[in-house]
């Protein structure tokens, strides 16, 4: 596509080069900005959000009456989940804090987690995935050339939350996801975090000798079981409070001695390299474009300021070769092997097997049953 044909949103930074799944209204505002407005608006006014928050917290407390925990809380040590933990304490909740140790967590993130749990007296459950195994899985994703390597971490967290929810009979999970800062993510930049068949097929084709030993996963049948019997409910707490990242950071620093580590999701050494180097260089994806677009929609930044940030490189020129050497050493990849991976054409996740066809069959069967029930 020539540059003349690229259409950019009149409001945010997204354009037709970033994703083909984008459309524009008569004022040139893109479908992502419209969807953002719709999502934030659907949460209601400040009073309605506050009322809903009170009701939900009471519901969670009632569920946990007489029990050690009333909810699950995934903690990465980043600002969103750390602030959520702070609020959980303020609101008098009793969360079981879950942390996934996949071997890539920065020291700062781990320290943040420890400080939070110590300060608030929260019990911490750390699930450790065997390092060789996890790196083997990630290497398979790198070699396959699929875009969303983070599926491996996110699927593992999803599996652990479901398993612990079942084990401890906890119905609620607090999520740090929030529309104000995360609603915009172009289709095609990420992939479903629940599709284990996709993971299994990629690993079978590119994972050489790696076997699933300690990696927690949920296949279609387990997911169906949890779907029917667990009814785990996710509550996006940050959507119902005034959430401003910079203010949240200041609160965490003064209340807990929390430490900031820079970019979004930079709590993991691999995620930092993946987002700042692999995604822009191999896939032509600069996630800052989505994050900044969110900030524009939330009126935290002007489009001009966002463009100025985007004009800078996504990675630090001075640090990147050091980070690259570190990552290659961890993956036991030579410079030549890594360059080959970076040069190869990206491969869509859809080239591999997917759980989706099983879900489609399941829902079509359910619809047929509903139809026959209505008829007779
Ligand atoms: Zn837009």
Note the topology:
Elements: H1 31-42, H2 46-63, E1 71-74, H3 79-90, E2 95-101, H4 107-120, E3 123-128, H5 131-144, H6 151-168, E4 172-174, H7 179-182, H8 196-206, H9 220-229, E5 233-235, H10 245-256, H11 269-283, H12 288-297, H13 303-311, H14 317-331, H15 335-343, H16 356-375
Parallel strand pairs: 1-2, 1-4, 2-3, 4-5
Helix pairs in contact: 3-4, 3-10, 5-8, 11-14
The protein binds zinc ion.
What does this structure look like?
Helices cover 54% and strands 6% of the residues. It has 376 residues and is of the alpha/beta class. The protein has a domain at 28-261: Rossmann fold (3-Layer(aba) Sandwich), CATH 3.40.50.620. The protein has a five-stranded parallel beta sheet with strand order 3-2-1-4-5, with helices on both faces. Strand 2, helix 4 and strand 3 form a beta-alpha-beta unit. Zinc ion binds at residues 9, 11-12, 14, 29-30, 32-33.
């Amino acid at each position: 596509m020539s540059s003349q044909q690229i259409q950019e949103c009149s409001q945010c930074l997204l354009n037709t080069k970033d994703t083909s799944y984008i459309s524009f209204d008569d004022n040139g505002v893109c479908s992502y900005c419209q969807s953002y407005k719709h999502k934030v608006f659907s949460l209601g006014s400040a009073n309605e959000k506050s009322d809903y928050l009170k009701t939900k917290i009471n519901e969670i407390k009632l569920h946990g009456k007489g029990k050690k925990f009333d909810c699950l809380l995934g903690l990465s040590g980043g600002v969103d989940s750390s602030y959520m933990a702070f609020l959980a304490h303020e609101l008098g909740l009793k969360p079981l804090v879950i942390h996934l140790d996949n071997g890539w967590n920065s020291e700062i993130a781990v320290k943040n987690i420890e400080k939070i749990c110590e300060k608030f007296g929260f019990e911490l459950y750390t699930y450790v995935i065997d390092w060789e195994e996890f790196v083997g899985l990630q290497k398979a994703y790198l070699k396959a050339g699929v875009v969303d390597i983070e599926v491996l971490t996110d699927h593992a967290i999803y599996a652990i939350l479901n398993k612990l929810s079942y084990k401890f009979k906890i119905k609620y999970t607090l999520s740090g996801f929030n529309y104000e800062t995360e609603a915009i993510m172009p289709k095609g930049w990420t992939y479903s975090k629940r599709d284990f068949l996709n993971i299994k097929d990629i690993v079978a084709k590119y994972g050489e000798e790696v076997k699933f030993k300690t990696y927690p996963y949920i296949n279609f049948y387990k997911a169906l079981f949890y779907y029917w019997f667990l009814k785990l409910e996710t509550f996006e707490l940050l959507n119902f409070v005034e959430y401003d990242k910079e203010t949240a950071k200041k609160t965490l620093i003064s209340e807990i001695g929390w430490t900031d580590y820079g970019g979004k999701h930079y709590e993991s050494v691999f995620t930092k390299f993946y987002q700042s180097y692999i995604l822009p260089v191999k896939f032509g994806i600069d996630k800052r474009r989505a994050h900044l677009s969110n900030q524009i929609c939330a009126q935290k930044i002007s489009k001009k300021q966002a463009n100025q940030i985007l004009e800078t490189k996504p990675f630090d020129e001075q640090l990147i070769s050091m980070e690259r050497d570190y990552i290659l050493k961890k993956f036991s990849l030579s410079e030549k092997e890594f360059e080959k991976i970076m040069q190869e054409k990206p491969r869509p996740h859809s080239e591999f097997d997917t759980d989706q066809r099983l879900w489609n069959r399941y829902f079509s069967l359910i619809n047929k049953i509903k139809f026959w029930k209505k008829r007779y």
